[in-house]
């Protein structure tokens, strides 16, 4: 039997850009993807799925984020983001997310372990 301490960490990645122009350029998304992938590799983790959205961080209704959160909750994986502002700039939204029951402590450069 394998203990949880020996288990490979599992992540659900969420990437977001604010505008269609940023999304088309791929520059913001490419940097986020690299940061998340480097973070996962450094921890020997597996990225189970990646969700990408082109939407303002001011909007709380984001279908890809909702799906990422559901998958993280169902699998016990950690939601991982490249930077906190990619998730939201709204403190109330972040507090609601924190209370949602999804493990979301990890982001490249700022792991909560």
Topology (elements, then pairings):
Elements: E1 10-17, H1 20-25, H2 27-42, E2 46-54, H3 63-75, E3 78-81, H4 84-87, H5 91-98, E4 103-106
Parallel strand pairs: 1-2, 1-3, 3-4
GO molecular function: DNA binding; DNA strand exchange activity
Protein name: Resolvase, N terminal domain
InterPro entries: Resolv_N, Resolvase-like_N_sf, SSR_resolvase
Brief digest:
With 113 residues, this protein is α/β, with parallel strands linked by helices. It is built from five helices and four strands; from the N terminus they run E-H-H-E-H-E-H-H-E. The chain has a four-stranded parallel beta sheet, sandwiched between helices.
Protein model, in words:
This protein has 113 residues and is α/β, with parallel strands linked by helices. It has one domain (7-106): Resolvase, N-terminal catalytic domain (Rossmann fold), CATH 3.40.50.1390. Helix content is 42%, strand content 22%. It is built from five helices and four strands. The chain has helices spanning 20-25, 27-42, 63-75, 84-87, 91-98, and strands spanning 10-17, 46-54, 78-81, 103-106. The protein has a four-stranded parallel β-sheet, sandwiched between helices. The longest helix has 16 residues, at 27-42. The protein is globular. The model is unreliable at 109-113 (pLDDT under 50).
Attribute tags:
DNA binding, DNA recombination, Resolv_N, DNA-binding, about 110 residues, four-stranded parallel beta sheet, Rossmann fold, about 40% helix, 4 strands, alpha/beta
């Amino acid at each position: 039997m394998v203990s949880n301490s020996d288990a490979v960490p599992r992540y659900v990645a969420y990437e977001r850009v604010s505008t269609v122009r940023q999304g088309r350029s791929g520059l913001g998304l490419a940097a986020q993807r690299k940061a998340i992938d480097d973070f996962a590799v450094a921890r020997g983790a597996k990225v189970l799925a990646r969700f990408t959205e082109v939407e303002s961080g001011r909007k709380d209704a984001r279908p890809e984020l909702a799906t990422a959160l559901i998958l993280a909750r169902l699998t016990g994986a950690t939601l991982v983001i490249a930077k906190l502002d990619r998730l939201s700039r709204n403190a109330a939204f972040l507090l609601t997310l924190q209370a949602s029951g999804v493990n979301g402590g990890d982001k490249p450069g700022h792991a909560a372990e």
